[in-house]
């Protein structure tokens, strides 16, 4: 009970055309244009729901909101109480925001690093299945997880584990923690870094063949592959990463494991079974001794 899954992410972006080209041409994702008030927004349809990624034209590239789906109105009230007790101010979403999200209830607060975190009840299905080009089908099937890096790692862990009741799945000492809110290995990972940023969003694909086809299209389209194909040690996902037009990574992956309540958190040590060669330095690499 409580938070059920990662629902959506909103981004302010300076180059909407580059984003829509990346999502549409390279990843085969349908883009729908809408408005919230007088503001334009591009909605990426990753699955059967209204959207998972919202892109707002802006003079600055920055996260706009991270949305979590909550089981029920009563659970929303319970989590609101926990946040208030912990010192967070919780606000009601306005009608236009709630409608755009396809939700029935919407509240939000500001996390320790200044990001807007939303809690939504309900998620409107907008289609029986997203449209995909032949070489992308079935391709993308949803939004998997995000990795948030910040010098305020301790405060973020307190929020997500103690207040929002996420469970620790595993970690790599001294500063990378993988947290879950359902059976999926992780829906968010928290990392220590000198500056705050989203390190990456994971776009979930249906199979290794879909990941491979996306890799071929990225090469064809000249999309920078920032981390090569590989398999992670902890969640066993096979993936590669591309640098998106806002400067952070999109992970293109499939095959992450699920865990149950008997899972024991542990330091998984080696980051990868194979691959995942970084084009530039790995900020989460173990320090040389």
From TrEMBL:
Residues making up the signal peptide according to the UniProt record: none
UniProtKB keywords: Aromatic hydrocarbons catabolism, Dioxygenase, Iron, Metal-binding, Oxidoreductase
Cofactor requirements of the protein: Fe(2+)
Domain VOC stretches: 5-122, 142-255
One Pfam family hit: Glyoxalase
Family classification: Belongs to the extradiol ring-cleavage dioxygenase family.
The name this protein goes by in its record: VOC family protein
């Amino acid at each position: 009970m409580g938070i059920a899954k990662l629902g959506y992410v909103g981004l302010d972006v300076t180059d909407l055309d580059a984003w829509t080209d990346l999502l549409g041409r390279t990843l085969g994702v349908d883009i729908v244009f809408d408005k919230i008030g007088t503001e334009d927004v591009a909605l990426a349809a990753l699955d059967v729901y209204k959207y998972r990624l919202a892109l707002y034209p802006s003079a600055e590239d920055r996260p706009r909101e991270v949305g979590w789906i909550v089981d029920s109105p009563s659970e929303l009230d319970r989590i609101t109480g926990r946040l208030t007790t912990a010192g967070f101010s919780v606000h009601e979403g306005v009608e236009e925001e709630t409608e755009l999200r396809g939700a029935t209830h919407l509240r939000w607060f500001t996390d320790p690093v200044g990001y807007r975190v939303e809690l939504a009840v309900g998620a409107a299905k907008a289609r029986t299945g997203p449209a995909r080009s032949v070489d992308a089908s079935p391709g993308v099937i949803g939004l998997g997880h995000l990795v948030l890096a910040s010098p305020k790692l301790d405060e973020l862990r307190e929020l997500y584990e103690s207040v929002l009741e996420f469970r620790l799945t595993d970690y790599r000492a001294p500063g990378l923690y993988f947290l879950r809110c359902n059976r999926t290995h992780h829906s968010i990972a928290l990392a220590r870094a000198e500056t705050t940023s989203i390190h990456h969003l994971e776009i979930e694909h249906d199979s290794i063949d879909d990941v491979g086809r996306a890799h071929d299209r990225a090469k064809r389209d000249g999309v920078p592959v920032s981390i090569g194909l590989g398999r992670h040690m902890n969640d066993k996902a096979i993936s590669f990463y591309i640098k998106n037009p806002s400067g952070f990574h999109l992970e293109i992956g499939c095959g992450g494991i699920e865990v149950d309540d008997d899972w024991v958190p542990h330091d998984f040590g080696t980051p990868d079974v194979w691959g995942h060669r970084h084009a530039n330095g790995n900020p989460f690499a173990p320090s040389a001794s």
